[in-house]
Amino acid sequence: MSEKCKQVEESHVPLICGLPDDLVLLCLARVPRRFHHILRSVSRRWRALLSSDEWHSCRQLNNLEEAWIYILCRDMSGENIIYVLDPDPERRSLKCLQPMPPACIKNRGMSFEVLGKKLYLLGGCNWHKDFSDDVYFYDSSAEKWMEAAAMPTARCYFLSATLDDKIYVRSVQGSNSGPEGWDIYDLRTDRWSSLSDSMPTVDFEKSITFEDKIYTFHKTWYDSRHARMYDPSSRKWEHLQNEFVSCRCGPTVALDGTLYMLDETSGTRLMMWQKETEDWAPLGRLAEQLTKPPCHLVAIGRRIFIIGRMLHTVVVDVDKAAKVGGMLVTSSFEPKLGGVRGLEVLGCKTIAI
Q1: 287-299 pLDDT, tens per residue?
Q2: pLDDT, greater one: 192 or 246
Q3: What is the Cα–Cα distance from 29 to 218, expressed in whole angstroms?
Q4: Which residues form a coiled coil (predicted)?
Q5: What is the C-alpha to C-alpha distance for residues 78 and 344, in angstroms, rounded to an integer?
């Protein structure tokens, strides 16, 4: 009871004595994101403020949001590590997100997704456990790991995608004995639901989300490649016959409604999907000594970040690239990793606060 009374008393104490809370919010919202951990340590009210929707809305409405890149990696010892990269050209600082949940450190075959301000690690397997139904998330506002509702089916090396504050997961042939169909996690309720269908997800290579639909890419035993599109609104699958199937050639990212792909089949070329002609158009070629495939793509503003082995990063300004043909003009950097070697990038996501 005394603890509750203390919290009630603190809720009536102004954020800064002598100033209305609305004005304090406008002032604190202008503090750069790299200093937010200091603001959280001032008081419980300040910590609660930085985790609130009011705080995020204020930064968003005043164009103060800063996007950081979260990079899931595996080191030479087989342990998983998550690095956080501040992509600001003046800093480009890198830090290790520690500690990870112990159950995830040695896992392989995990899914890596983002919903809102939360980073999720789902499923996986290791020497001690064939398949896992565990779901952990990192709350980037509170800067701490927590456990979410477990998946209905234990999974490893499975398909996953995010749409409308939901995570869609589905088995891949041979990954486990789970049912055909989707398990769907709802961020708002922290609950899972299941949706069955008759479409088998076989010979899976990759999946992407684009224009509120989920695309899956497959390779058959006789080397024929094909793709399927799932529309959650109609709950129907559609086979794709056009050049969109070529999306399997490399990592992709959507930027302002346009899909970009890094073609890694012969050197590295940045390609752009053209809806009118249903074809891929080359935006430009990148210097082979800069990119270190296999790469992953994320977009911030009008820039595409191409992140390869050892976190070597190439930055492409899409607007500038569209004006210059041939070799793309880029900037690049390689963060200092403090002696870490053989780092493999497993996935990249962005979270803006």
Answers
A1: 877 888 889 999 9
A2: 192
A3: 46
A4: none
A5: 10
